[in-house]
Amino acid sequence: MNLDALRMFVKVAELASFTRAAEHLGLSKARVSGGVRDLEALLGTRLLQRSTRAVRLTPSGEELLGRARQLVAEADELAAMFQAPSMLRGRVRVDMPQSLARSLFIPRLPELLAAHPNLEVQLSTTDRRVDVVREGFDCVLRVGKLDASGLLARRLGEMPMMNCASPGYLRRYGTPRSLEDLDGHLLVHYASRFGDGAPGFEYRDGDAYRERPMRAVVTVNSSDSFHAACLAGLGIIQAPRAGLLPSVTAGDLVEILPQHTCEPLPVSLVHPHGRNAPRPVRLVMGWITELIKAQLG
């Protein structure tokens, strides 16, 4: 049986699209479609139900998918067993927040690719919650609470938070010394979707976290804009300490109310490969884990 055809079938089934599967595998759509047709002819059964709107598994396809995944993973593992690390080959598709990609991972990416010249990384940087399976990601670095997805998640730790404002903002509004002082201040509101939630300053109260309502004149939906709005003097922000510390050290931002930080953000790696992640995926996940350790509390 042709392992390449099985690999094509698995990817089409996972992404429910010949086009997306071809992009992920680095092949033409015609080759992927032909490979699946050849597999169906060999097995004598229809594996995928095709329509102009969607691609769905037939009962035969559902029966084959689990075994096909296992066969492909085992074949890839066997091929990798006898390769030197520098010969590791494969394409790994990753998603992570913009700020972490820019400040932490992209500057160190040349080292990873120099050690593994046959490795290719497709890096998506967005603050929205991507659909790991439908969009064909091999692993996703998530900052924040996880939704129930059925995917394998590895908790890496927590990201300590910091409250900051620009020197210009503090000259105009004064430096708050207590929660009560916030009544005369502005907050930059972060919302992944406009209209979600109301602006509020989060703080610890005993064993729980509470929110003090505040006024915001600016709402943003990306971490880069969140940081930029604070630098521009548009209000106070609460964000991961690691991302704000360089601006604080440079004097562009000032830490305020250090006794009232918000709840640390959990950091996790999520992937769709179950316990059979291919070796290139395991390598990239290990690299991500090692680099982010220093940022976590």
How does this model look, in words?
- This protein is α/β, with parallel strands linked by helices and 297 residues long.
- It folds into 3 domains: 3-81, Arc Repressor Mutant, subunit A (Orthogonal Bundle), CATH 1.10.10; 85-159 and 266-295, D-Maltodextrin-Binding Protein, domain 2, CATH 3.40.190; 161-263, D-Maltodextrin-Binding Protein, domain 2, CATH 3.40.190.10.
- 38% of the residues lie in helices and 25% in strands.
- The protein contains 10 helices and 14 strands.
- Strands 4-3-5-14-6 form a 5-stranded mixed beta sheet. The chain has a 3-stranded antiparallel beta sheet with strand order 12-7-13.
Kindly summarize this structure in a few lines.
This protein has ten helices and 14 strands. 38% of the residues lie in helices and 25% in strands. The model has no long low-confidence stretch (mean pLDDT 89).
**Strand order, largest beta sheet:** 4-3-5-14-6
Which structural class matches the secondary elements?
alpha/beta
Strand content: 15-25%
Helix/strand order: HHHEEHEHHEEEEHEEEEHEHEEH
CATH class of the largest domain: Alpha Beta
Average of pLDDT: 89
**What is the annotated CATH architecture of the largest domain?**
3-Layer(aba) Sandwich
First-residue to last-residue Cα separation: 49 Å
The count of strands amounts to 14
Low-pLDDT windows of residues? none
How many distinct helices? Answer: 10
CATH superfamily of the largest domain: Periplasmic binding protein-like II
Question: What integer value in Å does the Rg equal?
Answer: 23 Å
Number of domains: 3
Which key phrases capture this entry?
297 residues, alpha/beta, Arc Repressor Mutant, subunit A, D-Maltodextrin-Binding Protein, domain 2, 3 domains, 3-stranded antiparallel beta sheet, 14 strands, 25% strand, elongated
